[in-house]
Each structure stands twice: as structure tokens, then as C-alpha cells.
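Fold it.
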Amino acid sequence: MTDTQGFEALASLSSNPEAAAPAEPQIDQYGRAYATGKRKNAVARVWIKPGTGKVTINGRDQEIYFARPVLRMMIAQPLQIADRLGQFDIIVSVNGSGLSGQAGAVRHGLSKALTYYEPALRAVLKPHGFLTRDSRVVERKKYGKAKARRSFQFSKR
């Protein structure tokens, strides 16, 4: 088999019309889309369904759970970018990490759930980095060190 035959075979493989087809919405029997978002050690399970824009986090309203306006703004970013503010009811179950990590996990999960509900929104959300999991986590403490990298105070005498 020559090189040209190999390249022709590769070219015929890449022109698969099924691979270029748009993704189908992933909606369950209740009309909801589900996604998992992660940030630091926080894991958020997010369900979205058409509604009035009510956000429930761990059974509480978002104003109560995320008291700081910055965290609520962080959660609303994907909806603002996609121009879907007030169109979906969002139910979230989140645990692990602190409030900032949890807000990041909810934002990540909400962005993924939006793309599962409306696959066309992927092109809108991806350039803003909402679909990328922020993989930065706390570095572990090493033995012989005060913290991950900090050494104990040195004394010559």
C-alpha cells in the first residue's frame, strides 16, 4: 500500500456526515437537563427546566445560600451571556469546598446543563471559558515543611 492510498483512506474517514451533525438535546422525561460542575473540591449537580428564573441551591433560595452578590453574579454569568436570564428554573445540589468554590462549580454545571438543553449555546459559552473545568486545587502539604512549600524558620544558632 502506497502513501497516496493511505491518505485517500484517511480522507474518506474524515468526511463522515454523522460526525458533523449537530448534537441532540439531552432532556429527561420531566423536561429537565442535568449536568455536573466541579471547582476545587466542590461538586455541583445542576438541573434546569423552563420556568420563571427561580434558583434553588440545597433547598434554599440563592439569596440565602450565596449571601455575597459577587457569588450570585458569578452564577448568573452563563445565563447573561446566553441571553436566557429568567427563562429557566435551576435546582442545584452542591457540596464540598467553600462558598467561592461552590459558586464556581454551580457556574460550570449550569453552563454544561445549558448546552445539554440547547446544544447551539455551546458556541456562545465556550469562548468565555464557562465549559472548561478550572483544575486548580490546593497543593498538598509535604513532610518536613510547615505548609506545602513553606519551610520552618531557619536559625543559625
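The radius of gyration is 22 Å.
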